[in-house]
Amino acid sequence: MEQGFRLFPDQASSVAPRVDALYAFLLSVTAFFTLAIFLAIVYFAIKYRHGRPKDRPRLRHEQLWMLEIAWIVIPLALTMVMFFWGAKLYFEIRTPPADAIELQVVGKQWMWKIYHPQGRTEINELHIPVGRPIRLRMISDDVIHSFFIPAFRTKMDVLPGRYTMQWFEATRVGEYDLFCAEYCGTDHAGMRGRVFAMTQADYAEWLRSAATETPQAAGGRLFSQLRCNTCHGDDAVLRSPTLHGIFNRAIALADGRTVHADEAYLRESIVDPLAKVTAGYQPLMPTYQAQLTEEQLLLLIEYIKSLPRPGTQNDPT
Fold it and tell me: How many other C-beta atoms are found inside a 10 Å radius of the C-beta of residue 259?
């Protein structure tokens, strides 16, 4: 990494040049008007300084409508350019491509733990392939953190009890800094790591070099250990809703509402099962609040997401 201050540090993701272009435009507009106002103040202070003989007739009232239109239209046009440019970029940053590789991130004092779908886990390191969009689903196990990769121009708060998301696509092989950008306690300054952008071939080899249990398999094992299959197993469908194919499905609730079964809904149903009771079933499930870590919840959710719809080819029932 090069040393010294640079207004725009290393650009290593597909979105970085566009973020920098918007930032440069904002700086240019700010600098222009700051300089113009400063020079006007100096000019008028000299021209109309106290004691200088100057013709100062009685103030004349003139038609200034052109001037008034100018100082309304010009700032409005500039701010609208900033607004629509920024809004377009924001929606692009907040909308990951459908083919993005999804990684799970758990922040805790004071480390990042990252799960790859193939089973590899990392602490304070993130290995990614170049040229493939990466989607991070993140949650904190304790306090608010912030996942920040300066070279990628991406930063997102990581919150306790709530999933947040960010995505990026590395464009150049290299090593880049990873920081927590939200003060999170005594060792906040030490909560940092490295991002390793690799060729896709090297990334595939890195995944194979230490094959471990996938999150889905680990979640299935935890599902059995917690005896979740007692009520949600294939033999207990009449007592509780089946979990096969529940992910990304519309769920009818006992109070007449309908909700979308995403990761947030699955997590809430585990830690606070009475918040949204499925229509046709009794509110019998006990809470697992404070009994499971965010990592365990993540594994359970990944297992539930992997369960196919009943009757499909991959359905074991």
Answer: 16
Mark out the alpha helices in the chain (DSSP H runs). Answer: 16-47, 65-93, 200-208, 215-225, 229-232, 263-271, 294-306
Distance (Å, rounded) from C-alpha 53 to C-alpha 110? Answer: 69
Number of domains observed in the structure of the chain? 2
For residues 245 and 308, the answer to whether their CB atoms sit within 8 Å is yes
Residue at 4 is within a domain: no
Half-sphere exposure of 122 (CA within 13 A, CB side): 19
Please check whether residue 309 is in contact with residue 244, taking contact to mean a CB–CB distance below 8 angstroms: yes
Which residue in 111, 110, 115, 112 sits closest to 134, CA to CA? 115
Same domain, 163 and 227: no
Reported as a single tens digit per residue, the pLDDT across 130-186 is: 999 999 999 999 999 999 999 999 999 999 999 999 999 999 999 999 999 999 999
Same domain? For 233 and 290 the reply is: yes
Measured CA angle at 169 (ends 163, 174), to 5 deg: 115
What is the distance between the alpha carbons of residues 297 and 289, in angstroms, rounded to a whole number?
A: 10
Other Cβ atoms within 10 Å of 69 Cβ, number: 10
- Structure tokens belonging to residue 307: 């369960």
Angle, helices 16-47/65-93, rounded to nearest 10 degrees: 160
Question: Which residue, of 189, 212, 235, is where some domain finishes?
Answer: 212
Is pTM, for the whole model, over 0.85?
A: no
Enclosing H/E stretch for 185: none
